[in-house]
Each structure stands twice: as structure tokens, then as C-alpha cells.
Amino acid sequence: MSERYGCFNEIDPNNYCEHMCLSFKPSSVPIKQRWRNNGLSADFLGDYLTTFFPKDNEQPDSAKKQAIVRDAATYIANELLENAMKYCDENGNIPNSIDLTLLPDQLIFTEINGISAGQKTEFKAFIKELESSDPDELFMKRLEASAESDSASGLGYLTMINDYQAELGWQFDDINDACKVTTQVVIKI
Is the pLDDT of residue 101 over 90? Predict the structure, then answer.
């Protein structure tokens, strides 16, 4: 049974311009080593995406748009990859993956990872708080709380909403004793 929250949409493969997927098995490499690769993977996705927004000397805003798209893609991909590494169920068989889908007017990031039942409960509580709160106020509240403890902050998701006007959605699928969580982030381009 799937549970969905936020703005979660099926992607029609007939409607997208480009699509790229990176996938990692959580237990194949120690987390510290994988953590170093997150930034490289996010930069790669951002750089790859810019090839679809070439600079045009006759269009002065083209370089600015390319930089904005790269910055957004790199930030969002890095946050999603970090969350996947931090909160994945390393003992599960669900690989971590991030997909980048380019549509004519939007970018869709889809990140998948496995989590434990306890993580699922905490994550769903955060999502419910996010859905019922003002994102700016919740950002300040979470910023203050994260300064006082090492608890999960949600600041990355809130930054996506506040700085990139992202729409976020989640799908939870129970698979045997594990839970596959799919996070979707959509930004307009």
C-alpha cells in the first residue's frame, strides 16, 4: 500500500525531454566515503543539466538562467543525496537513487531510499508539520531547534521551498520489513 503526501505526481515518460538516474547500494561503500561522493554527484547533475540551457550571446539572460538552473539543481540534488545517506536503512535491500527529469517548464528530482519503521514515523510527523505550517516560520523554528540539538532539522527541504519555490511530495511503500520512501521535488524553470 502506498501513502502519498504533498505534491507527488507520476511522471509520464512520453512527456519529458531528458532523464538521468544515479543509483547507489547503501551497504556497498562505507558511509563516510559515500558522503564525499554526494557533492561530486550533485555537481555532475547540475553540470549535465546546464548543457540543455546553452549560453547565447544574443540572449544576455541565457548565462544567468544557466547559472540559476545549475545552482538550484546542484543544491537540491546534494540535499536529497545527503538525506538518502543519513537516513537510509543500510541493512535493507533498497538502493538509494536520484533521478533528474527535465520537462519543458520544470525540473523534477526523484530520490528513493529505504528507511526503518521508526524513521518513517518521525518523517511523516515532519511532513505533517510542514504541510500545516508557514515555511518561513518553520524554517526559523527548525533553525533554532537544530542549534540546540542534533535532531533531524528539515532545513534542506525548507530551503528548497523558500529559496527555489519547490513543490515537495513523498510516497511511502512498505516492502516486507522495510519502507521505501520516494521524495519528489519539482521546480519551475
Answer: yes
Name the DSSP letter for residue 93: S
- CB distance 135 to 143 below 8 Å: no
Asked if the structure places residue 181 within a domain, the reply is yes
3-state secondary structure of 106: strand
Q: Does residue 43 fall inside a structural domain?
A: yes
In a domain, 166, yes or no: yes
CATH number for the domain harbouring residue 59: 3.30.565.10
**Model confidence pLDDT, tens digit, residues 18-73:** 888 998 877 666 666 666 788 889 999 999 999 888 788 788 888 888 999 999 99
Asked whether residue 16 is domain-assigned, the answer is no
Distance CA 129, CA 161 (A): 14
- What is the phi/psi pair of residue 26, to 5°? -55, -35
Structural domain range at position 83: 2-11+21-188
Helix (H) or strand (E) holding 158: helix 155-164
Structurally, the chain folds into a number of domains equal to: 1
- pLDDT at position 38 is 83
> What pTM was estimated for this model as a whole?
0.90
**Contact predicate 102/18, CB 8 Å:** yes
Give the mean pLDDT of 153-172.
Answer: 94
Write down the residue that cell numbers 561530486 correspond to: 40
